[in-house]
Amino acid sequence: MMLNKGPFVVEAIRTLSSVLERMSGHASKKTDLLRQLHAWRDFVR
Fold first, then answer.
1. Full-model pTM
2. What is the superkingdom listed in this entry's lineage (predicted)?
3. Torsion, Cα of 16, 22, 28, 30 (10° steps)
4. Tens digit of each residue's pLDDT, the chain (45 residues)
């Protein structure tokens, strides 16, 4: 990921940090885990 200087760089870093935090539970020792996708649970019901 490459970020340039600009007014949105802080927001981009926050967003990337959030994505990395949420994805950390989906991998263990370089092995992908198949976990539930909670983002879709409200649409499936």
1. 0.55
2. Bacteria
3. -30
4. 788 889 999 999 999 999 888 877 777 676 777 766 677 777 766
